[in-house]
Amino acid sequence: MNLVLEILTPMHIGNGDVLSPYSDYIYKDGQIYYINHQKLEDFIFKLDNASSLIDKFVDIIKKQASGNQSSKYKLENFFEANNLDIKEFTDKIVDCNTDIKNKQILKCIYTGSRPYIPGSTLKGAIRTSLIYGYLKRNSYNLNEIISIWKQNKYSYIGQDIFGKFSRDIMKFLQVSDTEPFSDTDIEIIETYRVDIESGKTKNPVVFECLKRNLSTKFSMTSKGKKNYHHLEDDFDYLYEQNEAVIFDYINDFFEDAIKREISELKSKYKGKGENPFLNIISFYEQLLNEIMEFKQNKNGAVLRIGAGKTFFENTINNIFSKNEFEEIKKIKKIKNNNPFPKTRTVVVDCEIIKNSLGWIKIYKEE
């Protein structure tokens, strides 16, 4: 099945790399200039004073990286002092939502020079939804799930449902990587962790993100053969041409997660003044409407991937009762915070919470 993927809020899927503010980029007038070290090096080595310039460049990096407050001479000053046009030594120039003040930037995942969304990321979110749906539609034994957790270092990926290793029937579901985006489809977003009771922000993190309203394509293909593999009825979505059934599972999972989140954001805030999460609550209510429409038409789903997901959007724990979850928290040694989780990752603009990260919708290509 060929699908369209549309990005609803800024999205970050990391590759483990970071951009250093001391050598990799320059922030200027709301934009990030990515320094091309090879271009700069090639240019400098052609100059008569190459050795002196390189020493100056290295000295700036050392002083800035060490937090030397006595030196206000920054990488940008190096270009200005030597009459170098920054634009001539950059790979690209990217918009940034705020002055990120010498913070490192977490890079997103690329194929070559173009960002993309791995099929493994999408399949992981789909798998969690399918496990949740199976347990919701059938009875479950909490003690058995806890036993599996303990045997697998507290990792539960539905081993008792889908099977282990080579016997895992999810091998019949193939999810491709998306088609790559353009390298200009990136923006730099500073996010904060916000306490949902007090509204106070902390721990800013800066991400490379794919922009909102972008779209791309990928495929989700079931490979099971009805007259050969004889799967149980609960897994009929793994038969050829049955992929659309999976939309129901994804929508059910994220509908429950969103409803829980709206309730938490509305009820837990105890700070002064207006609830700071109103923009996100309003957006989530719109998502519920989209999910309802997808359920009626059976042609797509809403889901969340990448950075910013909450505990309950990343696990099946929303299925458990309050008492069951308290038991799980004790066994897994999860901090007994109330509310749990206590903070959310959000995008803040002019001290107003604007967005959360990672929401997408997928639907059949017409």
TrEMBL record:
One of its GO terms (molecular function) is RNA binding. GO terms for biological process: defense response to virus. Belongs to the CRISPR-associated Csm5 family. Keywords: Antiviral defense, RNA-binding. This subunit might be involved in maturation of a crRNA intermediate to its mature form. It comes from the Bacteria. PANTHER family: CRISPR SYSTEM CMS PROTEIN CSM5 (PTHR38007). This is CRISPR system Cms protein Csm5. Residues 5-310 form the CRISPR type III-associated protein domain. It comes from Anoxybacter fermentans. Pfam families: RAMPs. InterPro entries: CRISPR-assoc_Csm5, RAMP_III_fam. The keyword Nucleotide-binding does not apply.
